[in-house]
Amino acid sequence: QNSKPLMEKRRRARINASLHQLKVLVLDALKKDSARFSKLEKSDILELTVKHLKSIQGQHMSAAMATDPTVATRFHSGFSECAREVSRYLSSVDNFDESIRGRLLNHLNRCLHQ
After folding, report:
1. How far apart are CA 52 and CA 114, in angstroms?
2. Are 97 and 90 in contact (CB under 8 A)?
3. How far apart are CA 1 and CA 25, in angstroms?
4. Which residues have a Cβ under 8 Å from the Cβ of 24 and sit 6 or more positions away?
5. pTM (two decimals)
6. Which pLDDT score is estimated for 70?
7. What rounded mean pLDDT belongs to the chain?
8. Domain assignment of residue 32, given as a range
9. Reduced to 3 DSSP states, what percent helix, strand and coil does the chain have, rounded to the nearest 5?
10. pLDDT tens digit string along 66-87?
11. Which of 28, 44, 67 is the last residue of a domain?
């Protein structure tokens, strides 16, 4: 019984240490002065991390497209096939709201053409 509070304390310490490391890494990558961001909330650190990772992912996609022009075509083709599969699946679901199906497919189509 006494080990549970100790385990929880250690778990929280690991989480806080990891969040601190994320903060340092992300602020350094974004060329921000960590002294000016000493009081970031945990949610802010996580949001900055997600934003930074998405940025890196976009850079990797751009680099891949620059070295292999078929990357965009293959991505587009795969996305289209996925949208068709979603449409087929939703058509097979009994009593599925057609307006939701239409909105979802319209959303996927807009994403495809961005």
Report:
1. 21
2. no
3. 37
4. 34
5. 0.55
6. 87
7. 90
8. 1-67
9. 85, 0, 15
10. 888 788 889 889 999 999 999 9
11. 67
